[in-house]
Amino acid sequence: MTGATRSNRALLWTGVAVLCVWTLLPIYLLALGALGGREIVAQWPKPLAPFGAAFEALKTFLAIEGVWRAAWVSIKAAAMTMVMALALGMPAGYALARFRFRGAGAYRVLILMTRAFPVAILALPLTVSFIRLGVYDTPFGVALVHAVLATPFATLVCASLFMGIPKELEEAAWVFGCSRFTGFLRVVLPLALPGIAAASIFAFVLSWNEVFAASVLTVRQRTLTAYLLSVLSESPLHLQFAGGLVLIVPSVLFIFLVRRRLFAMWGIGNR
User: Fold this and answer.
1) C-alpha span between 191 and 179 (Å, rounded)
2) Cα–Cα nearest to 64, from 231, 237, 220
3) Cα 159 to Cα 231: distance, rounded to the nearest angstrom
4) Helix axes 67-98, 189-209, angle to 10 degrees
5) CA 54, 59, 61, 67 torsion: positive or negative?
6) What is the pLDDT of residues 62-77, one digit of tens each?
């Protein structure tokens, strides 16, 4: 092994270590404050582990009235956001990848520009419109806004995946009697599942963590983030840490469940 190869590998592993620390350190400190209680939050330097960890903060947080209901509302909103974002993003991405039409490049730019539009400007019009439509203060209304935020990412991810899948595979399916739709279902969709899993992760995490629209568009059926914003704003720090830990656990579990699909995406991207 040459000296240049060793230095490159050392640089690679150093970057991996820095990235892991950057990602895991906030989660570790959050868990430390949530499990260690009031004493660990105020202690410095921090211990490596909350020895004799007390779960009173978590128990107190989970016993707050309305937390479980808000968590269920968040799950429903996130699930509907995933379905709507993929239902809109996959056909749009397929059209961008398989059809040539004027303005395709401008259309991609417009998709990205929707993410730059501030949601706060739409708060009042959305509230009035949702009240008129009867979806104000419902998980479906929150999911509609979250789907609008997640659909551009889902569209571009699906478009890049479909472009990486050879069109000849679809044409071979057409030769054997498949229509364009059945060819998509039997050939393209199984190959694109890893990228679709990545898009679903983004949609779920975005909906689960989003707080502004959920706070504006709900009153009684608040999502967990909106509920915690109103309940824990004046609470002790260890309770706020406990709320933060509960917020990140579902996202981590969801990513863990689809990790195989997510890792397999690199196989498609490298072909």
Assistant:
1) 18
2) 231
3) 41
4) 140
5) positive
6) 777 778 888 899 889 9
Coil, strand or helix: which one is 242? helix
**Pairwise CA distance, residues 202 & 253, whole Å:** 13
State the DSSP H helix or E strand holding residue 56, giving kind and residue range, or none if neither.
Answer: helix 56-62
> What span, in angstroms and rounded, lies between the C-alpha atoms of 32 and 150?
32
Distance, in Å, from the CA atom of 102 to the CA atom of 49, rounded to the nearest integer, reads: 59
DSSP-assigned letter for residue 117: S
CA 164 to chain CA centroid, Å, is 23
Which DSSP helix (H) or strand (E) runs through 232? none
**With bands split at pLDDT 50, 70 and 90, how would you rate the model's confidence at 80?**
very high
Distance CA 36, CA 31 (A): 8
Which residues lie closer than 8 Å to 8 by C-beta, 6 or more apart? none
Q: What is the CA radius of gyration of the chain?
A: 23
